[in-house]
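Issue 218. Parser rejects a valid record. Input:
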Amino acid sequence: QVQLVESGGGLVQAGGSLRLSCAASGFTFSSRSMGWFRQAPGKEREFVSAINWNGVSTYYSDSVKGRFSISRDNAKNTVYLQMNSLKPEETAVYYCAATPGPTAGPILQRQSHYNYWGQGTQVTVSS
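Output the parser choked on:
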């Protein structure tokens, strides 16, 4: 049974940091690229960051570049999202997702490319 379980969300003040984790099971984690997406209240889900299957290539939306960092530990079947200098407008539910295979490149920004999704973790940034 495929599972993606996010954790690490919570309430943080503007300018603070959080580290999200996504633990995967039920599939070969090391052969999948992984992504983080978020959905703010009343808005569509959007791409945040992605990492290819071996961790060599990373991708970020322009809005988080320089503040967020994605990484993965294939031995632990876990992908991380370190979020620094958080802003109130980044309050959202954050989702991790897995691709069908070892893909890389701009396609990782497309939600439709991912076939497994977690339930999400709430991040609230207070002003």
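Fixed in the parser; the record now loads. The chain has a mean pLDDT of 97.
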